[in-house]
Design goal:
Blueprint lengths: L2 E2 L5 E4 L18 E8 L2 E6 L2 E9 L3 E3 L2 E4 L6 E4 L3 H22 L3 H23 L4 H21 L7 E2 L2 E2 L7 H16 L6 E12 L6 E10 L4 E2 L4 E5 L15 E8 L7 E11 L14 E11 L10 E6 L1 E2 L9 H6 L7 E2 L5 E10 L2 H7 L1 H6 L2 E3 L15 E11 L11 E8 L21 E3 L10 E8 L10 E9 L7 E10 L11 E6 L1 E2 L10 H4 L13 H5 L3 E10 L6 H7 L8 H7 L5 H6 L1 H14 L1 H18 L9 H11 L5 H15 L7 H8 L1 H19 L4 H19 L8 H12 L1 H7 L5 H13 L10 H15 L1 H4 L1 H20 L4 H13 L11 H27 L6 H24 L2 H9 L4 H19 L9 H25 L7 H16 L10 H11 L2 H16 L11 H8 L4 H7 L1 H14 L3 H16 L5 H14 L6 H24 L6 H19 L2 H18 L2 H14 L6 E2 L8 E2 H18 L3 H17 L3 H20 L7 E7 ...
Parallel strand pairs: 15-22, 36-37, 40-43
Antiparallel strand pairs: 1-3, 2-3, 2-6, 3-4, 4-5, 7-8, 9-10, 11-15, 11-21, 12-13, 12-14, 12-16, 16-17, 17-19, 18-21, 19-20, 23-26, 23-31, 24-25, 24-27, 27-28, 28-30, 29-31, 32-33, 34-35, 34-37, 35-40, 37-38, 38-39, 39-40, 41-42, 44-45
């Protein structure tokens, strides 16, 4: 049976449990579980991180832990009872774990590894803490280490700063906000700036001396030297080196390393040096022979110096190589270091080029104990301590030191009967009172142990040697009395024996008879002469002698007169001995009572270090004197006491204060002293007002803290001794004393007067007295003293009076004192404190101190757990609110708005103050209860005051929410702030409703309220979605989602507004919209309905909600571009508002608005997604175009439109789409006029006139057109600019512009342009972005990009897309699928500008532009069989399905792709198919023949192959198949409507034979010798072909022909009937008779055709790549290379197009959608101008053809067959004349041109081939029409102009009908309307000479004979005028 658990509530999983049993809960090792029930070895519960899933698990798998249960029962929560540091470690490591893996993903390897080490270290420390075996101190260290590591990791990972107290996390609810702020600030500062250490130490490690001339042992001495005062600062560090220059005892590191300790900050300056003296031990002369002398001398070697300042930059123990200078003149040895420092080292030579002392030097900072912890290795390994000479900057009590330093300065010696000066060596001994030598008490320096004696340097032959050697004598204090130092002088002989002969001695006693030690300073000692063998063992013999010259009695002339002297300098550093006689006199006052007065007077002159040495003895002496002679010496003793107390205020001696405190507590015994002390103190206070000199009185008041300590302790001792006698008397004395104090404090003085300074001095020390008074008086009494004392201060004080600041400091100390902590005293002191605070804050003075006081006050006020404050606390809060809330708000506003001063310190100070005041405000508001708020709001006398208060507090709250208010990692503080704000706002919103609604409505207050609410919800620290799950959970548990609370409050307040809502429309739309974009569903549900309300009220007011719509749209763009909003929001917005407006009368317009906004959101979301890093440019561009068009067409937002134009422009530039970039910028250019209207600064444009901006845009666009090789467009803009410059007479710029235009013309002619491919792309499925979804586009490919590459690119851009493998239109299932489908195939452009393309003599470079620019329509063909397929002749049933796609804008344009607007589907019949195939092949033949004749071809191979292909195919049955299919009676009977077409086919077949014959004649002329056999074969085959067609003689046929062909073909008159073709003309479904039949005039080989074919349809050699089908012998075909079906692939050569076998062989390919153009059946019939094969070799012309349909004809033009009948008749004119007609400004559309005619002016054919069957030439948009001469030999004669043609196009024609309802191209440069210039027409063309092969009639190009075609073409030799610009985009 399951029983609820009592104690087993919380545990950790020890082993993983799979949970395979029924109801089992799977557990992972380390999971924490909460246990609910137990049953026989099983527990039931849940894992804490997933409390929703409950289950059972074995109890043996769980390690139970103690836990504290809250809310016992169903909703209980369990808190583990463990160390808070452990809890924090666990949760932090979990958070880090996830982030640590992310670091690896982001490739932040360095931090990844560092964090890994720290995590392991923390886990290790966690184990140590959990085991619990650590000592208390070690546990503290470990916790400190853990928290330091946690803080480091949090900082590195950008996590929050954790407020801690004593290593434990602090709950912000359990401490006041001011305290929380202080903790955060402390941790923040600690992180920012470590406090600078005041104590420094120098670590020295001697490595070696590198020198060439060693060989003797060395002694190296280091000391620190002050170059400014020329004195050593430290004792010496001494290292012995062996003969190799290495340390002598390498195993003893303490002999090589030292720490120069206790350097003050003042010692770290440039003129403080490390000085190194090196002494060699050996022979007298460095070069003497070894065996000369065995005695060792200490001789000078060299010196090195380095400045300490150089080490400040080096943090590590850098090795330094110190230069060693050798001393040449030994007499200067004592000052060699000074000379080196002064740079006078030229007199010394370096001891060798490689000589140097290698040492490691490092500066360490902090006190010595800190160093012991941080550099443990250093101290455990061993390091000697080298002390400072004298005491350090701070003397610590208990420090024991007794060092006497003696420096051997110099000596003066007589020659002693020698001819040369002596070599003097001194030996130093220390002897005790018994004359025994003190062992080991002479040390040369730290590092080496002390010795019994010391031998000085020997300076060679010097009677006045100067040694300057310092030795240290660490003699114990008890041995000082009676000890002396003896100096023995010996002459060192340099003779063989090297003896040292004693010749004199000196001595000095260390202590005088009266107990004073040897005074510091230089002493001139007497040298007592003696014999060489004199024994000095009995010191009593010489101690009676005088030792120094100054102490000689005046009658001893013998010794006084001697010249020999020896100087030493002594310096005592002792904590126990003194050299001061006055000090000794005072301490021994009982021995000499008469000297008391003098001793007390001299006390002030004694050095402080001497006094603190004997502090306790001195104080005992003073109180002893006071007790015995208080009347006589009371004042003097008091003054002495004041002097000593104030001495301890000095920083050097401040650590002795505890010594005095201990003395007062434990040793002070003056029970009667209090009376005298009070009396003297009162006497001084009473004299203050009248005294002239206040200095001494100020010193007395400065010491008042300790004076009161003595008074109180004395009284307590007296009470203990007497049982509390004289209590009343004592109280009266104290009261009188305070009355005197109050009197002097109440004096009004100027701030600088001495009395005011004395008042300030008292106020500084007064708070320190409170604690002492509390030892005797009650809390209330002391509080009364303080209140009255502080209250007695004058209130009217000048603002600049220094006393004010001191008064505030006194208040601060009072508030921080023990006295104020007690609630009893607080209620007495609070009014005084508040009065002073209020006065200062109102005047904005001393704000730092005010903040400190306020912080201290508020940190004492705490609510109880129940939430209700104690009555006392409640009263305090009430008082503070009443007096300070208003002024606190004003202060925060003032500080926040104050301009930041230049000084960083000031700025930081204000920043700190702001933070503290803010914390105070929050603490105060958090303490306020309902009652406080009610009292506060009732206290306002008028509505205006309340209004001002509300505005003020709302503004302050807005300041508190600012991100810069707190450092970014202070989330804890921010959450507390927000909690306080929302609580306060809930209270204040009631006041807002009650006081400022209806007739009392106040817009400003409400606006401020809403504005605050909005920014509150939007602040980053409340966006819980961005936090980790654990952090989010903690915040929700503690505070809930404050955004939802505030949102509900906004909604509630909004509903209360009623008709006043109109005041906030449209102003609040943007802010509320921002709130609804916050990704919190509850908040959105609350806030979105407000928009319905706004629409409703706006509708009531103005009958529409245009304002609401406009504002929504404006704000949506900016907010969504910042990353706000998502798809969920769009759906929610749509659904909520649609539901809301269902019953409204304005429902329709409402739905429209919602739909518009929703569509905008879709586009903006797409745009944002596309703009993400890593997205491809194509997607970004497409999305931007979609959005840009939306803004223009649907929203008409000009500014947004222009912004997106520039965004799109930047994207194009980045993608190097320069042409598209130009078109994009033209959109903006188009909006501007050539006017002087001033334009404001906008985007990156400066303030300028409209003309200037348009000029700049023009130049930029031209530059980009140039880079995009779209030079024709650039030329038009150049002209426009040139016209402007010309109109302003700006000839300089005009000249430049003309030159630029010329350069563009040059580029057109000289530079190669690549021809792009075009691809149709369908995007199907719901997963595509909105702007692509279920739409089809045509895309302009990149340079060299073929279908495979394009398809791969698209699949890379959409990696989840599936490529569809067919070209059929998808069905609805694909449209609605939750997937992405891509359908891609190549399409053929249909050029608009046929006039240029049709002209002869226009270079290909020019034509290529018109083929691929300004393309609106694209074609795609798919062959199929209709009806029964004839296996013998498949041409009978081979139809073509032709799809024409019309775009919304022409390509190229503002994008590389545009959406398909219209899609037309027509079917081409087999007969029309055949006509097109032969027409195209004829055109190709003509082109090649013309190129060959005009010698444009380098070789004749292309013509050879083309002839071979056609003749061979025809012989093998190609044309015969057509005859079989269409010329049989059955077909003619069944298809009577095709009569004209059959006739046309027959004409074309005969025409082809004629062209072939002419081509063979040309071929014969140019064919090389080796290809003659092939030519002969071709001629033979041609005869066979003729016979198969039944053609005998062309001339006869032509003569017999009843009608001449138009352009060389028999046709009916084409001008008699308007050429109108209805869509109904087709058979079955809308089918079109293929119209290519009328596209060609047949008088001459068109140069246009030749150019076009040569450029576009080359490579018959590679034609078999397309289908790789050889003709079978049994099957006749049009091409020897191919037997492909005529309608298979647009890039296939024309020879493939008549193949009867194609349909069978490639049936499987017809549905293939995404194949290359070469492989795809779809394009096989119509060569794509962009085909790679064709473009790759533009001059290699083979078996290829042009497209067989007119690119400019619309569907209706091509649909019927009746037009063909009209086109097949033509009248035969008798003469020719040039015709003139106007030319339209741009290529007209097919619908306008369809009946316009072409008059053919064809020169006469000569020879036997002038038969009337003429070459086929491609004409432009309108139909070719005209007459032809009969065959003859004469040049043409002028013809009369024809009658006016119906539907002809005039020059003033409007926009083509085809596009009248379509969005025009964004800015068609091509269509700029420039006025045309009149052009003189040329004479008729000459006839080729008869010597050449018989001429094929040239193409009838009217302009050559002076006429202009009606269809818009013009003379190629005349520059074609450009149309004027047409303004399209008008916003």
């Amino acid at each position: 049976m399951w029983i609820p658990t009592e104690h087993e509530k919380y545990g950790v999983v020890l082993a993983s449990f799979r949970g395979t049993v029924q109801h089992g809960l799977p557990l992972e090792i380390g999971d924490t579980v909460q246990i609910l029930e137990k049953c026989e070895g099983w527990y039931r519960g849940f894992i804490l991180k997933n409390p929703n899933v409950k289950g059972i698990f074995p109890s043996s798998y769980i390690h139970l832990k103690n836990a504290h249960v809250k809310n016992k029962g169903q909703f209980e929560t369990v808190i583990p009872v463990e160390d808070s540091v452990i809890t924090e470690m666990t949760s932090t490591l979990r958070d880090w774990g996830a982030m640590w893996k992310q670091l690896y993903v982001k490739n932040e390897g360095d931090l990844f590894h560092r964090l890994w080490h720290v995590m392991n270290e923390i886990l290790d420390l966690r184990r140590q803490v959990l085991v619990g075996h650590l000592t208390h101190d070690r546990m503290r260290d470990v916790k400190q280490h853990i928290t330091a590591r946690l803080d480091w990791g949090n900082e590195q990972l950008g996590l929050d700063l954790v407020p801690r107290r004593e290593f434990s996390m602090v709950d912000p609810d359990e401490i006041s906000v001011t305290e929380l702020y202080r903790l955060m600030e402390h941790r923040h500062r600690k992180k920012e700036t470590p406090a600078a250490a005041s104590t420094h130490h120098l670590f020295v490690h001697v490595k070696s001396l590198m020198s060439a001339n060693l060989g003797e042992e060395l002694e190296v001495f280091f000391h620190i030297y002050d170059g400014r005062e020329n004195r050593p600062l430290s004792e010496r560090f001494f290292v012995r080196l062996n003969k190799s220059g290495l340390p002598k005892s390498p195993e003893k590191t303490e002999r090589q390393c030292t720490l120069f300790v206790d350097l003050g900050s003042s010692d770290l300056r440039k003129d403080v040096y490390i000085v190194v003296h090196i002494i060699r031990i050996g022979r007298m002369g460095a070069g003497e022979k070894k065996n000369l002398c065995s005695v060792q001398y200490r001789r000078p070697f060299g010196c090195a110096v380095v400045s300490i300042a150089d080490l400040l930059t080096a943090d590590s123990k850098d090795d330094h190589l110190l230069k060693v200078y050798a001393c040449n003149t030994e007499s200067e040895w004592h000052q060699i270091h000074e000379n080196i420092i002064k740079k006078a080292n030229s007199r010394y030579n370096l001891s060798g080029s490689n000589t140097g002392l290698a040492v490691a030097l490092q500066l360490l900072h902090g006190d010595i104990e800190q160093l012991r912890r941080e550099y443990m290795v250093l101290f455990t390994r061993g390091v000697s301590i080298t002390r400072k000479l004298g005491f350090s900057d701070v003397i610590m009590p208990g420090e024991m030191r007794n060092d006497l330093y003696i420096t051997l300065e110099k000596g003066e010696f007589e020659k002693g009967g020698k001819s040369v000066a002596r070599n003097v060596e001194i030996t130093v001994y220390v002897l005790d009172i018994d004359g025994q030598i003190l062992k080991s008490h002479v040390t040369a320096g730290s590092g080496e142990p002390g010795g019994d004696e010391y031998h000085s340097l020997v300076l060679y032959h010097n009677n006045s040697p100067r040694w300057a050697e310092q030795i240290k004598l660490p003699i114990p204090v008890d041995m000082f009395r009676g000890s002396h130092v003896r100096f023995e002088f010996r002459h060192c002989s340099t003779k063989d024996k090297g003896e040292k002969k004693l010749f004199g001695y000196s001595f000095v006693p260390l202590m005088q008879e009266d107990g004073r030690t040897l005074p510091d300073g230089t002493h001139e000692l007497i040298i007592h002469k003696c014999e060489e063998n004199t024994s000095l063992a009995d010191c009593s013999r010489y101690l009676k002698l005088p030792f120094s010259k100054p102490s000689l009695p005046s009658n001893n002339q013998t010794l006084k007169g001697t010249k020999e002297s020896f100087w030493i300098t002594s310096f005592l550093c002792s904590t126990k001995l003194t050299q001061n006689g006055d000090m000794l006199d005072l301490l021994k006052w009982r021995a000499h009572p008469e000297r008391i007065n003098d001793s007390l007077s001299k006390l002030k002159e004694i050095d402080g270090s001497e006094i603190v040495k004997f502090l306790q003895d001195t104080l005992d002496t003073l109180f002893g004197i006071l007790d015995e002679s208080s009347q006589r010496y009371g004042l003097k003793v008091f003054d002495s006491l004041v002097h000593i107390i104030n001495l301890l205020q000095d920083s050097k001696f401040q650590h002795f204060k505890p010594v005095m405190d201990t003395y007062i507590e434990s040793h002070f015994a003056g029970a009667l002293s209090y009376r005298d002390l009070i009396k003297v103190l009162k006497w001084y206070v009473d004299r203050i007002v009248d005294a002239e000199h206040q200095d001494h009185i100020q010193q007395v008041l400065k010491a008042s803290e300790y004076i009161f300590k003595y008074i109180i302790q004395s009284r307590r001792l007296f009470s203990l001794a007497t049982g509390g006698q004289n209590e009343e008397e004592f109280r009266v004395c104290i009261h009188e004393l305070f009355m005197s104090i109050r009197f002097f404090l109440s004096q009004e003085n100027k701030g600088t007067s001495p009395v005011a300074q004395t008042q300030a001095m008292f106020l500084r020390t007064f708070p320190a007295v409170y604690g002492e008074l509390l030892k005797i008086f009650t809390v209330r009494e002391v509080a009364g003293f303080v209140r009255e004392t502080l209250g007695s201060l004058p209130t009217t004080v000048h603002a600049d009076c220094p006393l004010e600041a001191v008064k505030l400091q006194c208040i601060a100390k009072t508030v921080e004192s023990q006295l104020y902590i007690n609630p009893e005293s607080r209620c007495i002191l609070l009014p005084v404190v508040l009065r002073v605070l209020q006065a200062h804050m109102q005047e904005q003075r001393d704000l730092v101190m005010c903040a400190r006081i306020l912080t201290s006050m508020l940190s004492l006020i705490k609510k109880e757990e129940t939430g209700t404050a104690e009555p006392v606390v409640s009263e305090e809060v009430e008082l503070i609110v009443e007096s300070l809330l208003g002024v606190l708000l004003r202060t925060i506003l003032e500080i926040s708005n104050r301009p930041q001063s230049a000084g960083t310190a000031m700025r930081l100070q204000f920043q700190d103050v702001t933070g503290e005041f803010v914390a105070c405000l929050l603490a105060l508001l958090r303490q306020m209860s309902d009652r406080h708020y009610q009292q506060l709001l009732q206290a306002f006398s008028s509505k205006d005051d309340l209004r001002d208060f509300l505005l003020q507090i709302f503004t302050v709250f807005r300041i508190l929410i600012r991100p810069e208010m707190f450092p970014k990692d202070w989330t804890v503080m921010r959450l507390v702030t927000n909690n306080v704000i929302i609580t306060t706002v809930l209270y204040l919103s009631d006041a807002l409703r009650k006081n400022f609604l209806n007739d009392k409505f106040d817009y400003k207050v409400w606006d401020s309220y809403f504005y605050l609410s909005v920014i509150f919800i939007n602040q980053p620290c409340l966006q819980l979605e961005s936090f980790s799950p654990s952090k989010r959970k903690k915040i929700l548990e503690k505070y809930g989602d404050m955004r939802v609370m505030m949102g509900c409050e906004i909604f509630s307040m909004w509903q209360n507004l009623g008709e006043h809502k109109l005041n906030f429309i449209p102003a609040m739309i943007g802010p509320f919209l921002e709130v609804t974009l916050v990704p919190q569903p509850d908040l959105r549900n609350v806030m979105i309905p407000i928009f319905h309300d706004m629409m409703d009220w706006e509708q009531r007011r103005s009958g529409n909600f245009k304002q609401v719509e406009a504002k929504l749209i404006d704000k949506l763009d900016s907010l969504m571009s910042e990353g706000k909003g998502d798809e969920t929001y769009r759906e929610l917005f749509n659904s909520i508002l649609l539901k809301k407006i269902e019953r409204e009368t304005w429902r329709e317009s409402g739905i429209s608005l919602i739909a518009t906004v929703t569509r905008l959101m879709e586009r903006l979301l797409d745009y944002r997604d596309c703009m993400k890093l890593g997205e491809v440019d194509g997607k970004k561009i497409g999305c931007t175009v979609s959005l840009l068009n939306f803004y223009k067409t649907e929203l008409n937002k000009e500014e947004m439109y222009i912004r997106y134009i520039h965004k799109l422009y930047d994207l194009h530039l980045k993608a190097q789409n320069y042409t598209e970039a130009s078109y994009t910028l033209l959109l903006y250019d188009e909006l501007l006029e050539w006017s002087d209207r001033p334009l404001r600064e906008f985007l990156n444009y400066p303030m300028q006139s409209e003309w200037q901006r348009k000029e700049y845009l023009h130049l930029t666009i031209v530059q980009n057109f140039d880079r995009g090789k779209c030079w024709e467009n650039g030329i038009i803009l150049c002209r426009e600019l040139a016209d402007q410059y010309e109109s302003y007479y700006d000839y300089r710029n005009l000249s430049k512009m003309r030159m630029m235009e010329a350069s563009l013309y040059d580029k057109i002619m000289d530079q190669q342009r690549l021809e792009p491919e075009f691809f149709r792309v369908g995007f199907y499925g719901k997963k595509f972005p909105f702007f692509l979804r279920n739409k089809e586009f045509v895309c302009r490919g990149h340079d060299y990009e073929r279908l495979e590459a394009f398809q791969q690119r698209m699949l890379n851009e959409f990696p989840h897309a599936i490529a569809m493998q067919h070209v059929n239109q998808p069905d609805q299932t694909i449209y609605q699928a939750d997937a992405q489908y891509l359908q891609i195939y190549a399409v053929t452009p249909i050029p608009e500008s046929q006039d240029v393309l049709q002209r002869d003599g226009v270079p290909d470079n020019i034509k290529s532009f018109y083929k691929f620019n300004h393309i609106w329509r694209f074609r795609y063909d798919r062959p199929f069989h209709k009806g029964t397929k004839d296996k013998e002749n498949e041409f009978k049933s081979l139809w073509v399905e032709r799809t024409t796609l019309t775009l919304v804008q022409s390509l190229p344009g503002i994008s590389r792709w545009f959406e398909v607007e219209k899609r037309e589907l027509v079917e081409v019949s087999p007969l029309e198919n055949a006509i097109e195939v032969i027409e195209n092949k004829n055109l190709q033949l003509r082109t090649l023949i013309t190129q060959c004749q005009s010698r444009q071809m380098q070789n004749i191979n292309p013509l050879t192959m083309c002839l071979n292909g056609v003749i061979d195919a025809a012989v093998n049955g190609g044309l015969a198949r057509y005859q079989e299919a269409f010329f049989v009676k059955d077909y003619i009977m069944n298809h009577p409507e095709d009569g004209e077409k059959i006739g046309r086919l027959r004409e074309l077949m005969f025409e082809q034979a004629h062209i072939l014959e002419y081509g063979l004649a040309v071929h014969e002329k140019f064919v090389p010798q080796d290809m003659r056999p092939l030519h002969k074969k071709l001629v033979d085959q041609f005869h066979l072909m003729k016979s198969s067609l039944g053609i005998q003689e062309f001339s006869a046929y032509v003569r017999a022909s009843p009608v001449h062909f138009t352009n060389g073909s028999p046709r009916p008159c084409r001008n008699s009937v308007p050429n109108i073709i209805s869509p109904d003309g087709g058979r079955g479904i809308v089918r079109r008779s293929y119209p290519a039949v009328n596209r060609y005039s047949s008088s001459s080989l068109s140069s246009q055709a030749s150019n076009e074919v040569s450029n576009i349809t080359g490579q018959s050699e590679s034609s078999d790549e397309v289908f790789n089908m050889q003709p079978s012998p049994s099957t006749s075909s049009l091409s020897s290379n191919h037997s492909a079906s005529p309608n298979v692939t647009s890039s296939a050569p024309s020879s493939a197009r008549g193949s009867p076998q194609m349909a069978e062989k490639h049936k499987h390919s017809r549905e293939n959608a995404c194949l290359s153009p070469r492989e795809r059946p779809v394009s096989a019939i119509f060569p794509n101008p962009l085909d790679p094969a064709q473009r790759a070799a533009p001059h290699q012309i083979g078996d290829t053809t042009l497209p067989r349909s007119d690119p400019n004809l619309s569907a209706p033009d091509k649909a019927g067959s009746s037009a063909k009948n009209m086109r097949s008749q033509s009248p035969v004119p008798t003469s020719r004349s040039p015709q003139k007609t106007t030319v339209p400004p741009f290529t007209p559309s097919p619908t306008e041109c369809q009946s316009a005619s072409l008059v053919s002016n064809s020169p006469v054919l000569s020879g036997s081939y002038s038969s009337g069957i003429s070459s086929l030439s491609r004409c432009s948009v309108s139909e070719a029409s005209g007459t032809e001469l009969p065959a003859g030999d004469h040049p043409p004669h002028p013809l009369p102009p024809p009658t006016t043609l119906p539907n002809s196009v005039s020059s003033s024609s409007d926009e083509p009908i085809r596009r009248e309802n379509k969005t025009p191209p964004p800015y068609s440069v091509y269509e700029r309307n420039n006025p045309r210039r009149p052009v003189p027409l040329p004479h008729s063309l000459s006839i080729p000479p008869q010597t050449d092969p018989p001429a094929l009639p040239p193409k009838p190009h009217q302009l050559r004979t002076g006429s202009m075609k009606l269809d818009g073409t013009s003379d190629p030799r005349v520059p074609r005028p450009r149309p004027l610009p047409r303004k399209v985009s008008q916003l």
